[in-house]
Each structure stands twice: as structure tokens, then as C-alpha cells.
């Protein structure tokens, strides 16, 4: 992840971090001749580039995390600090206070190391009952602090901003006396993790808390709102990065740190909040977002059937314009409408039954055209829910709902294709659901089944 004002590290430093972290851990030829190279990026920092042409579907690299830990700082959920399973009545280690769910987790090498570190360096201020809640959330900092010296130093090669106090650290300091040098280290790492870590999707195996990991090579991937890769996380939390379309020699390799289906103002704001930068990619600069008009609001002029769009989407105070009657609307007016839309969306419950005639939806329709990202998002949720929800199996869907599922799959596939999603997870997921709907249709009336599928 690049931040323009940060100095570009020397190639020898990069080589060190990659070598010391055994980056090229995949057992393929890539270890000898990687498909990528690290170079200066036009985004300002450094990035990964194709060292040769990379065919769609190719594995670009495999990357093991330097450290993993919980994603958010919700202090109410208790979990085992080692296997991350949620557990309400878990024991905690009497020596260090870390929560451990089983003898296995308690006697693990990782716990022995942490236990020794905490009891040696941190002095408990009082018998704080709640401290075990925070330790599992702070353990990722201990993992990184205990890295071998060279690797620990190379952490500073990752992009980071001004270091400041954060909630978990404040909490930790209220429980223990922590050496200043370690507090400073944790502040820096907090910023490194915020900017560079990747969400690790929850595994289906056990009930575990949401995780994130610091992946030393993937951290060099810059963001683009139309990425050319997709990530797959393995059982051992290692990450595989595949090309979602052909990547040319010398072309930059991108990932996407935000929701691909959100409209530009929402994506950019979320990227700023979570990763501290304002995206200026080609999609962000295009008011029409590759013809999808995801940001569109219905024209305020009741006689007009046009949509209003931001004139310059990367300037939040830009005027909006109507694509039909060409009226101009100051951003303040847009903000008030978006406020109303936001409150309507907040009362749309995810658990609501699928009801295209609901009152809230009708109100939303008075503001938004069907291409709006709000509807796209809602339609995607419906698509995945129809036929895959309690009391609503495919087998039991009404004809109307089966047809709705099929239609929504095709619409969203078309939109993702227009945005240039390539062979992304979203496309795979939608194709799976479209296939399920068509198979159910075929089961119901085999004679009428039309085998010609067109979704592009
Ligand atoms: Zn455990
Ligand atoms: Zn312990
Ligand atoms: Zn962008
Ligand atoms: Zn108009």
C-alpha cells in the first residue's frame, strides 16, 4: 500500500525483507523466477508489477502472514488468544492472563513465548479482572515485537503514518506498566497494520472471530477500484493472489481494499477512513463509473427523467449535473438528499423478507434510479438469500421469486462485467447462484428449459 509522501525504500532493503520472510514460499517455479517485480508506482510509493505477461487465472504469488490477530476492538467478545475461537467460559492463564480454550492452546509454543514475555516485561498494576480481554487483542503486537532483529527492523519499510495512542493500548496501559520503548513500537505497528493488513475471511470450520494479517509481499500491492487480482486464503492463513484478468508485462498489479460494488463517494470515504488515502484511480475519476452510474440520484426536476452525477467525483465539493436536462446542483443539496437516503437505508433490515413493494424501498425509489449502488447492494443480498435461507429453499421458491433470483443474478453479472471485475469472486458467486436457479427451473419444467445462457 503506497502513500505518496513516503520515501521509496532501496531495492536491497526490499530484497532483505522478502528473503528474511521467505516470501517465495510456493513450491512452484515462481520461487526461481517470480511473475512480479517491485518498482516505483505512479501512485507515488512502490508497487508490484508484472515481470512478464501474466495470464488470467495464474497464481502470482503465495504469501504467509508475518503475524495475524483480531480485526476489530470490540471488547465484549471473549475468544481464545491462540485458535481465535469464541468462548464464553474459557480459562485464562494464571501467570499472564491470556485466554486459552484448551490444554493444547495453553501448552502451545506460542503461549509459552508470550507468557514468558508478559511476565518478564509487564508489571500488573492491580488485580485487574478484565485484563484478559485485552491481551488476546494485543498479542499481534507481541508477535511482531519478538521477530528477529532484521525482520523487526524491516517492518518500518511498510507504509505508516504518524503514530498515536489507540484504544487497546490505552486499555493495556491501564492494566500493566509497559516500558516506553514497547509503547512506541506498538503505536507504530498500529499504523502499519491499519494501512497494510488484509482481512482474512472467516473460516467455516469453527466459530472464530474476524481476523486480519500482515502479509509482507501483499503489502506492496497498491489499491485500485478495478483490481486485476483476487485473493484466496488457505487453511493455514496463507494468502494466494491470482490474476483476475490478463496482466501485461510492466503493468501494475492491484488489489481492492474496499467493496467493489459501492459507488465512488462511498468507496473513497471508506478508503480514507480505513487506509488514510483518497483514491484517484480511473474509475474514481469517471462520473459514470464505466457506464454503471452507481452514484446516480434521480434528477430533482420532476419533469426530467435523467440522473444526477458528480461532475468531478474526486472533489467532494464538486457540483453535480443532470445527464438529461443539464441542470447543476451544488454539493450541499446533494449532501442533504444523501442524508435522507442514508436514514432510509439504515431502517432497511437485512433480515427483512424480500419484498420489492416495501414502503422504505418505494421511498428510496423516489430518490434513486435502479442503477444506484444502494439497489445493487440490496439486489446482491436478495440474490444470495433467495433459495438459501431458512424456510426459503430453492425447492420451495415461488415461480415469481425464482424468476427474480435469475434476473438479479444476470443484472449484477452484467454490471460487474461493465466495471471490469474479470474473474473475481463476485462473478464466481453469481454464476453459482445463476446456475442453481436455472437448474431448479429445469427440474420444474424440463421441456421448457432453455439452455442458452447469456449474461454478458
Ligand atoms: Zn484455543
Ligand atoms: Zn500464560
Ligand atoms: Zn478508485
Ligand atoms: Zn434533469
TrEMBL record:
<dbReference type="GO" id="GO:0008757">
    <property type="term" value="F:S-adenosylmethionine-dependent methyltransferase activity"/>
</dbReference>
<dbReference type="InterPro" id="IPR001214">
    <property type="entry name" value="SET_dom"/>
</dbReference>
<dbReference type="GO" id="GO:0008276">
    <property type="term" value="F:protein methyltransferase activity"/>
</dbReference>
<dbReference type="InterPro" id="IPR053010">
    <property type="entry name" value="SET_SmydA-8"/>
</dbReference>
<dbReference type="GO" id="GO:0008170">
    <property type="term" value="F:N-methyltransferase activity"/>
</dbReference>
<dbReference type="Pfam" id="PF00856">
    <property type="entry name" value="SET"/>
</dbReference>
<dbReference type="InterPro" id="IPR046341">
    <property type="entry name" value="SET_dom_sf"/>
</dbReference>
<feature type="domain" description="SET">
    <location>
        <begin position="34"/>
        <end position="258"/>
    </location>
</feature>
<protein>
    <submittedName>
        <fullName>Protein msta, isoform A-like isoform X1</fullName>
    </submittedName>
</protein>
Amino acid at each position: 500500500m503506497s502513500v505518496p509522501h513516503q520515501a521509496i525504500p532501496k531495492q536491497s532493503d526490499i530484497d532483505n525483507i522478502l528473503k528474511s520472510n521467505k516470501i517465495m514460499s510456493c513450491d512452484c517455479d515462481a520461487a526461481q523466477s517470480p511473475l512480479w517485480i517491485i518498482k516505483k508506482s505512479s501512485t507515488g510509493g512502490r508497487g508490484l508489477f508484472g515481470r512478464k505477461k501474466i495470464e488470467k487465472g495464474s497464481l502470482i504469488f503465495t504469501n504467509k502472514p508475518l503475524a495475524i490477530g483480531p480485526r476489530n476492538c470490540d471488547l465484549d467478545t471473549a475468544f481464545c488468544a491462540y485458535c481465535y475461537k469464541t468462548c464464553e467460559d474459557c480459562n485464562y492463564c494464571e501467570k499472564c492472563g491470556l485466554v486459552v480454550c484448551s490444554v493444547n492452546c495453553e501448552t502451545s509454543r506460542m503461549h509459552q513465548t508470550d507468557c514468558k514475555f508478559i511476565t518478564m516485561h509487564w508489571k500488573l498494576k492491580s488485580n485487574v479482572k478484565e485484563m484478559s480481554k485485552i491481551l488476546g487483542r494485543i498479542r499481534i503486537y507481541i508477535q511482531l515485537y519478538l521477530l528477529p532483529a532484521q525482520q523487526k527492523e524491516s517492518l518500518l519499510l511498510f507504509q505508516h503514518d504518524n503514530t498515536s495512542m489507540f484504544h487497546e493500548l490505552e486499555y493495556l496501559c491501564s492494566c500493566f506498566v509497559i516500558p516506553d520503548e514497547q509503547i512506541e513500537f506498538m503505536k507504530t505497528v498500529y499504523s502499519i497494520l491499519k494501512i497494510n493488513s488484509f482481512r482474512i475471511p472467516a473460516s467455516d470450520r469453527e466459530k472464530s472471530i474476524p481476523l486480519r494479517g500482515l502479509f509482507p509481499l501483499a503489502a506492496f500491492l497498491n489499491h485500485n477500484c478495478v483490481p486485476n487480482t483476487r485473493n484466496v486464503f488457505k487453511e493455514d492463513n496463507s494468502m494466494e493472489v491470482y490474476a483476475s484478468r490478463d496482466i501485461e508485462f510492466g503493468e501494475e498489479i492491484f488489489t481492492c481494499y474496499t467493496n467493489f460494488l459501492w459507488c465512488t463517494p462511498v468507496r473513497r470515504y471508506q478508503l480514507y477512513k480505513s487506509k488514510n488515502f483518497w483514491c484517484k484511480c480511473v474509475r474514481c475519476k469517471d462520473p459514470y463509473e464505466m457506464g454503471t452510474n452507481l452514484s446516480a440520484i434521480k434528477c430533482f426536476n420532476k419533469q426530467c427523467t435523467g440522473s444526477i452525477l458528480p461532475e468531478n467525483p474526486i472533489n467532494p465539493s464538486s457540483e453535480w449535473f443532470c445527464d438529461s436536462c443539464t441542470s447543476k446542483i451544488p454539493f450541499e443539496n446533494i449532501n442533504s438528499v444523501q442524508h435522507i437516503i442514508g436514514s432510509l437505508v439504515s431502517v432497511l433490515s437485512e433480515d427483512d423478507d424480500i419484498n420489492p413493494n416495501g414502503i422504505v424501498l418505494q421511498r428510496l425509489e423516489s430518490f434513486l434510479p435502479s442503477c444506484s449502488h444502494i439497489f445493487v447492494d440490496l439486489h446482491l443480498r436478495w440474490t444470495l438469500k433467495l433459495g438459501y435461507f431458512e424456510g426459503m429453499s430453492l425447492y420451495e421458491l415461488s415461480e415469481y421469486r425464482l424468476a427474480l433470483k435469475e434476473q438479479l443474478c444476470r443484472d449484477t453479472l452484467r454490471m460487474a462485467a461493465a466495471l471490469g471485475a474479470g474473474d473475481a469472486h463476485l462473478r464466481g458467486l453469481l454464476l453459482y447462484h445463476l446456475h442453481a436457479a436455472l437448474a431448479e427451473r429445469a427440474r420444474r419444467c424440463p421441456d421448457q428449459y432453455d439452455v442458452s445462457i447469456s449474461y454478458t
